[in-house]
TrEMBL record, chain A:
Membrane-crossing residue ranges in chain numbering: 20-43, 55-79, 85-107, 149-171, 191-214
Entry keywords, A to Z: Cell membrane, Membrane, Transmembrane, Transmembrane helix, Transport
Compartments reported by the entry: Cell membrane
InterPro entries: AA_ABC_Transporter_Permease, MetI-like, MetI-like_sf
Pfam families reported in the protein's UniProt record: BPD_transp_1
Chief location category: membrane
Protein name per Swiss-Prot or TrEMBL: D-methionine transport system permease protein
Recorded topology in the membrane: Multi-pass membrane protein
Family: Belongs to the binding-protein-dependent transport system permease family.
Length: 220, 254
């Protein structure tokens, strides 16, 4: 182990922990809120089971606005909201608020796209069997789209990691913030490169896991 | 009378114009009948079939199936009514991420079968279509004919009184078509299931139907009773194809 890493061991572990908290909560919100929102986006589209123009437009505009914000501006813009939700605008927990909102918008769009790939005939056969909307979602849509849903979550997770690296701006910490403060600002270039290499390995591992699971789930 | 359509119309908005797919059609189909619907593409035959289980909602008219007026049923009741109306499709529409067994099990899960009863019924249905040995395979591992057999097993699982078939053999080769038609005939004879079959293939309709409705431009031209003629199964021998091809050539040369 290089001396420089040993020297900053404690700080590195702490920043990894912060990244895990930020990214982990983002994944949780993507699944708990983004998945239902994406499903609703799909179902409320024109010609779909719950066709509803106002719900579709509302969600669609929300997703588009969040995704068109330059991320740093979104973080700053959301400070009053963050303070309202977690009581402070500074720190790792505060950083999860804008991250989770982006996570919801990002993943719901990918969910919508995954569901759109399902052939119409499958939904028709479900309706002809007398399935309710909830039964169609759980017994048909999610089963048929499961491998795209996993791939989408993999892509999202990697984006969340990337977003989380700039959370130093509100004191969120994390590996990216560590690399900037110790590696770049203290001219420890070697340390910065180690951190970058570590993140590359980490992202590769996530992508590999996601792709492997998706392949296993896909029987098409 | 198991299916009765009274004065049914259905139109679609297409950009600026309105397409009248079915135009004031009335049709009665008796219990135990195999009823064919034939016509050119765009004649409205598929729409007519999809109106019978209200997959398409009619603009006006009344649809009665199994003594239930589907057009006035509340959503929940309509879903229940659909469970006794099986349907199969040209492109089979199986869930590709479910095994053959699980595909057939879905309608039983919707009806709330117990686990044991479900397993028994799925096996019974798969045995009927001759695919009990494929239970653990996925649709992608099956041939077109086998997929349609699974779809038939799935449609029969809830013991429907009516089976709607939307171009069931149009994606299949002649040999496989003959096999599927045999299965449908057995379904009709053994279980007394009323079958409505939409097809553009004259041979198919002629070989299986007791009555045939001919459609044109969204209207019924006529409904006739017919004598069934056996479906001509072409020889599997490649020479047969050659003979057919060259014979045609000879005829046109003559």
């Amino acid at each position: 182990m290089p001396d420089i890493i040993l020297k900053y061991q404690a700080e590195i572990w702490q920043s990894i922990g912060e990244t895990f908290v930020m990214v982990g909560l983002s994944i949780a919100f993507a699944l708990l809120v983004g998945l239902p929102v994406g499903t609703l986006l799909y179902l409320c589209r024109k010609g779909q089971l719950l066709e509803n123009r106002s719900i579709y437009s509302g969600l669609n505009i929300f997703v588009n606005i969040v995704r068109s914000f330059p991320f740093l501006l979104l973080v700053v813009f959301l400070i009053p909201f963050t303070r309202f939700i977690v009581g402070t605008a500074i720190g790792t927990m505060a950083a999860t608020v804008p991250l989770s909102i982006v996570a919801i918008a990002y993943y719901s769009r990918l969910v919508e796209q995954a569901l759109l790939e399902i052939p119409r005939g499958i939904i028709e056969s479900a309706v002809s069997m007398g399935a309710s909307v909830l039964e169609i979602i759980f017994k048909f849509l999610f089963v048929e789209a499961r491998s795209s849903l996993v791939l989408g979550l993999t892509t999202s997770t990697i984006s969340f990691i990337s977003y989380s690296t700039v959370m130093g701006i509100v004191g969120g910490g994390g590996v990216g913030d560590f690399a900037i403060r110790y590696g770049y600002q203290r001219f420890e270039t070697e340390l910065m490169i180690y951190i970058i290499v570590m993140m590359i390995i980490f992202v590769q591992a996530i992508q590999f896991t996601g792709t492997t699971i998706a392949k296993k789930l896909d029987k098409k | 009378m198991v299916i009765s359509l009274q004065n049914i119309s259905k139109s679609y908005q297409q950009h600026q114009s309105i397409l009248q797919a079915v135009h004031s059609v009335s049709l009665n189909i008796d219990k135990g009948e195999i009823h064919g619907v034939i016509g050119a593409s765009g004649a409205g035959k598929s729409t007519l079939l999809r109106l019978m289980n209200v997959l398409e909602t009619p603009d006006q008219g009344t649809i009665v199936v199994n003594n239930q007026t589907l057009t006035t049923l509340p959503n929940r009741k309509l879903r229940e009514a659909r469970r006794s109306i099986g349907m199969i499709f040209q492109h089979f529409n199986l869930v590709s991420n479910k095994t053959v067994f699980d595909n057939v099990a879905v309608p039983l899960e919707l009806t709330g079968y117990s686990k044991k009863a479900k397993v028994d019924r799925v096996n019974e249905c798969l045995k009927f279509v001759g695919l009990e040995h494929k239970a653990e395979q996925y649709p992608a591992q099956l041939s077109g004919g086998q997929k349609q057999r699974v779809a038939i097993a799935r449609a029969l699982a809830n013991r429907p009184a009516v089976l709607l078939c939307d171009e069931p053999t149009s994606a299949l080769d002649p040999q496989t078509t003959a096999g599927i038609l045999d299965v449908l005939k057995t379904v009709n004879q053994e279980f007394g299931v009323t079958i409505v079959i939409v097809s553009h293939e004259m041979d198919v309709v002629r070989s299986i139907c007791d009555k045939v409705t001919v459609m044109d431009g969204g209207k019924i031209l006529e409904t006739v009773s017919i004598e069934t003629e056996p479906y001509m199964i072409p020889d599997n021998d490649p020479k047969w194809f050659l003979e057919q091809l060259t014979e045609k050539e000879r005829n046109s040369n003559a």
